Amino acid sequence: MDNAVSNKRTKMIIGFLLLAVAVTVFFMMHSTMPRLALFIVFGLAIGVALERSRFCFVSAISNAVLMRDGRLLRGVLVGMIIAAVGIGIMMMQQVPDPDSGIIPVNAHVVPLGWTIAIGGLLFGVGSVIGGGCVIGSLSRLGEGSLSVIILTAGVEIGLILYNLHAGFWQNTVMHDAQRIWLPAKMGWPMALVVTIAGLLLVYYLIRVAEAGSVKKFFASYRPHIDFKSFTWKKLLEQWPATVGGILLGVISIFSYKFLERPLGVSGEYVRWSEIIGESIGLHFPEVDAVPGACAISASADEITWGLVLNLSILIGAMIVALISGDFSIKYPRTWRSAVRVLIGAVIMGYGIGLAGGCNIGAFFSAIISFGVNGWVFGLTVFIGSLIGIKILQVTQR
């Protein structure tokens, strides 16, 4: 038997065994912790969607800027539009009168201060230099990329550094910051219209940028869906970016429906940065909890929803990568690339601390929670990504 065929079959068997283990763990957990067990389902689904659609927020911006290929970025926006409609309807039922001053408890709406903008810039620069973001790194680790371990270590270092300075930021820049929730400012109908219109406008601008000009866009654009191009073989090999975005949006809706919170993955990284820092003797200043932030407070021996979700995303990506034969161990190409990943990750981790989340919690889930902080974070991440791209271009000459 050909070695390549044998190797692929072995990966497939391991993948199905891992799937069986995941299903078994789900049923064991469901009998005692049914709500926590649901995070396994959503995490596995996210991991599969990310891996099959090659969904990556960093690549989405880089491809759009460098190659005028906005497919990934447009996929993100499609998912956000779907999620905004679904979650908006549920939030409307929870808080029918947004003038009451009540904001849904787990909505990712954080105080809007300069920390959001600074955090977004640092996140954008760091994610490009480091070559990945938090949720994308979970998918890549599931595919066998060991450089993600370096990236994860760097994010933890960056968060530890932020924790040491958290008191300064909260007592100065964040001191008078207020949460700005669109429904409270303009009512539900207008908040929905403004959010969806804003996302559609960004989608349109991306299409224009891909075409090269507004005139070329209208001359070449033909709205249609080519159903003939969708075959089972193509669907099993790789999914279009829009499919990944749609799935992420739908999963976000179900997550809010059954788990009462939008998606967020960096909270577990924040938790472990606190645990690691305290274990090596660092003393972090006491700071007030930030409303709506994705941080998770728990001791090291607790099983949290963040831990279950992140591990399930990793395992979901690994299962589908093994079954499809795409799993392979990949090492950093050179020690210089490893150092670059580490430096970028440290910068990104500090940005996560400042902004109260990453591109999922502070951007994706913040905008679909109708928080203005999500728009500010998204804009500054884009600017930071442009700076990061320029830094890479200069240093790699």
Account of the protein in words:
By secondary structure, the chain is mainly alpha-helical. It has one domain. The chain has 17 helices and no strands. It has helices at 3-32, 34-53, 57-66, 71-94, 114-130, 134-142, 147-171, 182-186, 188-211, 214-220, 232-237, 241-259, 267-279, 305-324, 335-355, 359-368, 372-395. α6 crosses α14 (305-324) and α7 packs parallel to α15. The radius of gyration is 21 Å and the shape is globular. The termini are far apart.
Brief account:
This protein has 397 residues and is mostly helical. Helices cover 72% and strands 0% of the residues.
Give the strand content: under 5%
In terms of quaternary structure, the protein is single chain
- What share of the residues lie within helices? over 70%
SS summary, helix count: 17
User: What's the total number of strands?
Assistant: 0
Q: Topology, please?
A:
Elements: H1 3-32, H2 34-53, H3 57-66, H4 71-94, H5 114-130, H6 134-142, H7 147-171, H8 182-186, H9 188-211, H10 214-220, H11 232-237, H12 241-259, H13 267-279, H14 305-324, H15 335-355, H16 359-368, H17 372-395
Helix pairs in contact: 1-2, 1-14, 2-6, 2-12, 2-14, 3-4, 3-17, 4-9, 4-12, 4-16, 5-15, 5-17, 6-7, 6-14, 7-13, 7-15, 9-10, 16-17
Features:
single chain; 397 residues; mainly alpha; 72% helix; 0% strand; globular
